[in-house]
Amino acid sequence: MASSMEEDQPAWIADVEAYVSVDRAVSDEVRSDAAGRIVQLLVTGALTFLDLLRGMETCLVTTDDARRARGVLLLAETVAGYAGDDETVGAGARPLPGGAASLLSQYFASKLEDFAVLRAALAGCTALLRATATVDGAPGLSTPAVSHASATEMADRFFDAVHVPSLVQADRQRGYQFLLALVSHPETAAVGPPLGSMNPAEQIESVVAACDGEKDPRNVLLLCELWTALPRAFCGDAGSDADADDVKKRREAFASAAEELYDVVAAYFPVSFRPPPGDSIRVTREQLAATLRGAMCASGDFAPWAVPHVLESLAPDKKPQTLDDALATLIACGRAFGTHGMGPHVRNVWSCLRNLLLHPPAGPELTAEGTARWATRAFASEWGGAELVDLALSDPCLKDAAQALRGEGADDMHVDSGENNGGGCCGGSGEHEHGEGGEGGGGGCCGGSGGGAAEGASATAADVTRRGHALVAGAGRIIGAIAAAGPKPAAAAMSLGLAPLLDAAGVGPGGETSDVGPGVGPLGLVLATPAACGALDGALAGADAPDGPVAVLGDVGARLVGLFAAAAAKEIEGTSALRVGDETEEPEEERRDNGGILGVAGLRTLLSFPAGAGLIGEDGTRAALNALVDASLEPDPATADPDDDLDPEADLRRRAGEALAAAASSKSDRAVAAATVHTAVPRLCAACDGASASLALAALARVSAAAGDARRTAVTTLWSRVGGGGRSDPVWTKPIWKDFVDAMAGPSTTTSSSVPGMLQSAALDPVTAAATGDEDDAVRDVAATMRGESAPGARNDADACRLIRAATAALGDSHQVNVLTDVTGEIVGGAASFRAACAAIVGLRVSPGKSGDFPNCEDLLRTLVGRAVGGGDVDDARAATEALSSLVHKLGTSGSLGERSGLTVAKDAGLMGSLHSAAGVAAVGAMLRALAARMDPATADLAADIVAQLSSSSREVAAGAARTFGVAMSPGGGGPGLTRACHGSEKKLFRQRFFTQTMPAVMAVLRPSARPGETSVNSDHRRAHLSALVHLARHAPVSAVLQSGDSVLPVLAEAINALADQSTPFVDKDALAGGIVLTAAFLSDPRGRDTLALHAEEHAGAIIGALCRMGSAGAGWRRLKPNSPPAVPMDVRETALDALVAATSLPFSAVYPQRKAVERASVAALDDPKRRVRFAAGRCREVWLALGTQT
Predict the structure, then answer these.
(1) Helices 648-664 + 617-632 axis angle, to 10
(2) What SS3 class is residue 1065?
(3) How many whole angstroms separate alpha carbon 631 and alpha carbon 629?
(4) Cα–Cα distance measured from residue 139 to residue 132, given in angstroms and rounded to the nearest whole number
(5) Among 1162, 1166, 1164, 1165, which Cα is nearest to 1180's?
(6) Which of 333, 476, 710, 1190 has its CA at 20 to 30 Å from residue 1091's CA atom?
(7) Contact yes or no for 439/466 (Cβ under 8 A)
(8) Given this model, what pLDDT does residue 1119 score?
């Protein structure tokens, strides 16, 4: 009978039993899956809530508390899942059946009095309060699943039966979720929150009693959300349809309880929570602070208590993080409370901001710059900005600063110059470009106690600077913060704040500094730099104003130009007391003079204003530009140390050049850009005839790289002044020849900070392709003159060849055919200027799309191949290789080079017959790179020919064939003709594609079964293929190599040993380094480590053995061969030892047997001649000794 009854039960009963089971062996995943299946049945209609309640009757009424609690929780989860309140079924709200919603509401409300199932009951009530229900007889309509009356009954039961503070964390969390659902009830706006049948005052009291004293951060987040919702629930929204009298009563009750309500959340401010190590709560301090901020500002009724509370935390002695939180909360209060709530506190707000601006914090969480930005937001606010600006501009601290700027005593001033003044430097980093330290208040400002003066200054001047430093720095921060608030505050700050202080400092109406007293000049910079930066921020904030720009600087602009220009010219003494950026503390007599840096930064700021907001008239702009030109041409002093790596003059010139470049490329004021072209560029060109020629050329290159108009003027003017074969003293006869070539063609050795040459910039400018204008004429003249009979190009001068290449690249399209025709005749005809002609080919602006314009170049190709591999002059071979690579890369598919992109002609000319020589390897590798870089179909043909040569009977040819892959894959392997500056078009993923297409052919001989002694493969052929594999992989993307790990790993150790074998021509220190780095990549990258772990048992020993040999290769070298370096380079030895450390992450069973060998190798490496290697050896030994102690 029992069996028959079990067979009649529906299948979902088993899911119910699985969920409510008290057996701990049932996992949470099993329970979740069971609940999900039940929800799916409810959604599809195969099961109704009434049937579910009947089927669950036994577990809902059982006396087993645990089973009953699980039953109620299952019911709650099915409600939430059906209604779309969780992720059980998926997103999207779904109304509950009307009858089921009413029944469930009554059931869950009744269970609030059953303590054993309280958590589940709260979950069910919360899910129902968030859900909707269908309306009988009205399809498509829905209503709240729990009516206002039912919700009120739930609240009564909750407050009567539950004492929230005494519950555990999870239950308190459910309680807060339940209360939040109550106050968010859809009918709250009309009839008030359903928080019980009590009057509003008693409702608030009950909520406060339930929430007061919470400490768990997860629950505090919920509590703050609840407090954010309470004002809307009791006070309603403007324009609501609620009964006016009821709303009035609720608002009065809320206002009466506002202090008590605020005190609940005020207890958490300022936030002191720090997540503990290994925190599983996953609540951050930032989350708490942001949520608490919303709760504290949730109602205007909180203003009388919230604002004073926040201001208490703005004392300068508070921690920087606390101050940052308090300032953010103050601004949030202003937005929330408005003028009405903030008005009574504006003076107190200014008092706090004043103290922070005068004594800014210096912690990482909040600095002087950050403080100024927060103050700017207050000055720009609607709730008190105007009043705050008036208070700030009339503050006594500005009068004290004026007294200090007059050089008077500071004993009775309002602000001392104690140690808590912030540190840092006026105006930011000194390399100040807008947005770099100047955002929102002018950037970092001098705040330290200052002190110090320039060498040779009198004691009086030093005392003036030292006493006034903190006072003037504070005034500068205040003025800068006001100015950054917007155009109108900026104009007021300049005219009412900065102008009187400049008067006190003795700066004349036109910027004259002759009346500036001793020691006052540095203070003027401390004041003016943040003020100017703040004014720039304010001007930019109003740049798009509909009523046009505001003249922010006014008459102060000319005065600032004069002050900054004097500083840039180092006419202000005593500025060594000012620190810029992160300079470390050092004796005063050894400090750098930072006045020039601050002057250049200030001038750059003045030239960055939007049109109409900055300097008035052209005179101020020209004066600023001329001052920057003078700074860029400032020579090194006679006493300069040539070995000083931190050359202050070179740093100043670089900054001045960057400022001119920024002005030339100005988008905010086209007049500034035009003035730079017409004022600064001609001056720099004129200076190229004088003693400062090299400095002027460097500045011109920097300006030209930033702006096309400036470049065009510079190229034409410069060439007409100092170049030209028509001159009696052409440029190559002058001492500036090398500097001229660097400025025009770019430095011969480039780094990440190198400035491109003017002709390189022209080549990258699409406008130059049209071949029009004076610049094109000048470039044509450069290219022709440098290849003339009397020019150094005729003698194959290396600098002239660089200039020819750059000039040819800058020529317009219409001139390219003539150049190609001319140089083809020269090269094929055997002219003496072979390298110059090759340089022209490298720079050609040609492409397959324009191939119809070009003549047949097969003879040119044959000649280049012959010169590249013919065994002649090394420099001629290099030039021919670069020209060959460029020609094939750019004209390969045009047909003008013959079949297969010129490969057929090149092979017929003997390209593949010289792999035994370095020149042949370079030529073949360069041609392979030229084809592969643009993914030419002929790439596969040439690669196959090279792979075939790996099995050559000549060991030298096989080794050379392997190296060609390294040349083809290496950065710059194809020569300059493949770069953007010479119009190359390398595809982004060509290395990855070439590697994946070529590696299978290389690996064919290296199959895991093809081991030496077990196959007929020649050992030299195997070494050649191993070498080729490493050359291919070392420059390929790591991801591509790791994807081929199953093929590469089995032979990696053998490849490393082959490349290190000094007795064979396959030895290659660069490839060896690549192999070690590749091994380290497999050990450090998760993808490679997983692949290596699969093969660890088989190959870990060989790989670790190879690493041991490489890591210990320098052991004892100082004693054995003290006058020669070890055969294995230092970086290879160090990387091998680091890779051995990473190898300990492999499976224990694979690495443990190798511990003795590694320990011996690491001990031997402790005798390496290089300290870095010895350090790596010590680290390796320590890690592997620890591994040896494991069992």
Answers:
(1) 140
(2) coil
(3) 5
(4) 13
(5) 1162
(6) 1190
(7) no
(8) 63
